[in-house]
Design goal:
By secondary structure, the chain is an all-alpha fold. The protein has one domain. The protein contains 19 helices and no strands.
C-alpha cells in the first residue's frame, strides 16, 4: 500500500511535466488541407446542426472526398463537434487542443497499464518514457485523430486489466462495461482498430486462458455497437456498408502505395529514426523474453506479444505509417521499463542507471522531435518525410 501511495505521489509531477511539454509544442499554425481540414469540415457541419446525415452526405456525394477520412469515425467526429460547441469556436487549433488533451490522457493510461501489469515502480519509469515520446508529441499537436485513437486503445487495455483483476462481481461488471465503452469508442475513432482487435482479444485470452460463450458474446459487443451507433446516427444500416465499400475501394490509393508501402520491417526502421533508444531496447526485450522465458514473468510475454502484434498487423499492408502504431509506442515503453527493471533488479546502482538512462533518452527524443517535427515541419511521419528532415535524403 505504501509503495502504491509513493507511486501516485511521483505520478503527479510526471504528468505535469508531460502536460507542460505537450502544451509548449501546441503551436502549429500551418494546417494540412487534407485530413486536418476534412475533420474540421465535419466538426463544423455537425456543430452547425443538420445532424450526422449532413456529414455523411458531404462524404458520399463527393467522390473527391473518398480518399480522405470518412464518417465511420463517429466517436472522433462527435468529440470534435462537442468540443467545438463547448469552446465556442471551431478551428484547426480547437481540434488540435482536443488531440493534446488526449495525448496527456494517454500518458496517464500508460502508467495505469504499467501499474496493473508490473506495479507502480515500473509504471513510473514507463510514464517518464512516454512523456517525451516524439511520435506522441507530434501527433498531439495536430488536428488529427491519432492521439484520440491512441488514448481509446490504451483505455480499452487498461479497463480490460481492471476487469480481469476485480474480485467482486459489481466491480467486474462495472469494469467490463467500461471496457465495452472504451473499445467501442476505439472502433468509432478509427476503423483501423478492426486490425488491432484480434490482437487485443489474444491478449485477453493470454491473461485468462479461457474462452467460453460469455467471452464470445462480450467480444462481439464492441463491433456490434460500433455499427449500431453509426446506423442510429445515419438513420439506417445500409449507409454503413455503403461507406465501408467506398473506403475499401481506396486501399490502393496512390499516396498509400507510394508512401506507405515497403518491406515488413519498414515500421521498425521509422521507429528507430524517431525514437532510437526505446525502439532498440524494445527489440532487445522481445528477443530476450522469447529466448529466456523462465527469467521473465508471464506479464512480460503477454505485453511483448500485444506490442509486437499491433506492429505486425501493419507490416504487410500499405499502411506502413508509424502514426498508425502510436498505441504500440506506449506499450513498447512499458515493455522497456519492465525489461530494464527486471535486468537491473537487486543491483544497488539501479536507481542511478535508470535515472541517467531516462535523462539521456529524454534529451535524445526531444532533440529528434524538434529536428523532425519542428525544424523539419513534418506533418505525416512516413519514411520519406522523416529521412529528409534528418538530412538522410536530399530535401
Amino acid at each position: 500500500m505504501q509503495e502504491d501511495l509513493t507511486g501516485r505521489h511521483l505520478l503527479t509531477p510526471l504528468l505535469i511535466v508531460a502536460a507542460a511539454i505537450r502544451i509548449a509544442v501546441h503551436n502549429v499554425s500551418d494546417w494540412s488541407r487534407a485530413d486536418e481540414t476534412v475533420y474540421l469540415l465535419y466538426a463544423k457541419a455537425l456543430a452547425a446542426g443538420g445532424g450526422y446525415a449532413k456529414v455523411i452526405r458531404m462524404f458520399v456525394d463527393d467522390p473527391g472526398m473518398w480518399v480522405f477520412p470518412h464518417p465511420l469515425r463517429w466517436s472522433w467526429i462527435g468529440a470534435t463537434s462537442l468540443f467545438c460547441a463547448v469552446r465556442g469556436e471551431c478551428t484547426h487549433r480547437t481540434l488540435a487542443t482536443l488531440a493534446t488533451a488526449a495525448g496527456i490522457l494517454a500518458v496517464g493510461l500508460t502508467y495505469w497499464i504499467g501499474r496493473e501489469l508490473f506495479g507502480p515502480e515500473i509504471a513510473l519509469i514507463a510514464t517518464a518514457l512516454a512523456a517525451t515520446s516524439p511520435l506522441q508529441l507530434a501527433l498531439g499537436r495536430r488536428a488529427l485523430v491519432d492521439e484520440f485513437f491512441c488514448a481509446a486503445v490504451l483505455a480499452s487495455i487498461a479497463t480490460l486489466l481492471l476487469h480481469l483483476r476485480a474480485t467482486d462481481r459489481r466491480s467486474r461488471i462495472a469494469w467490463l462495461v467500461a471496457w465495452i465503452a472504451a473499445t467501442t469508442i476505439a472502433f468509432g475513432a478509427k476503423e483501423q482498430f478492426l486490425l488491432l482487435y484480434p490482437v487485443v482479444l489474444l491478449f485477453w485470452w493470454l491473461r485468462t486462458r479461457r474462452i467460453g460463450w460469455r467471452e464470445v458474446v462480450v467480444w462481439m459487443l464492441p463491433p456490434f455497437l460500433y455499427v449500431a451507433i453509426f446506423s442510429l446516427l445515419a438513420g439506417d444500416v445500409r449507409t454503413f456498408f455503403q461507406i465501408a465499400r467506398i473506403t475499401t475501394s481506396t486501399i490502393g490509393a496512390p499516396y498509400a502505395v507510394q508512401f506507405q508501402s515497403g518491406p515488413p520491417h519498414r515500421l521498425i526502421l521509422d521507429s528507430l529514426a524517431i525514437a532510437p533508444i526505446v525502439t532498440l531496447l524494445a527489440i532487445v526485450a522481445m528477443v530476450a523474453i522469447a529466448m529466456r522465458r523462465e527469467a521473465f514473468a508471464p506479464e512480460h510475454r503477454h505485453l511483448a506479444i500485444l506490442a509486437a502484434g499491433m506492429i505486425a498487423v501493419h507490416a504487410f499492408l500499405p499502411s506502413q505509417n508509424v502514426r498508425y502504431i502510436v498505441s504500440a509506442d506506449s506499450l513498447m515503453r512499458i515493455l522497456v521499463a519492465a525489461f530494464v527493471f527486471a535486468e537491473l533488479r537487486g543491483k544497488k546502482w539501479m536507481p542511478a542507471v535508470i535515472g541517467a538512462g531516462l535523462a539521456i533518452n529524454a534529451l535524445v527524443e526531444l532533440k529528434l522531435f524538434h529536428q523532425i517535427f519542428i525544424a523539419g515541419q513534418v506533418y505525416d511521419p512516413v519514411t520519406d518525410n522523416i529521412m529528409r528532415a534528418l538530412r538522410m535524403l536530399p530535401r
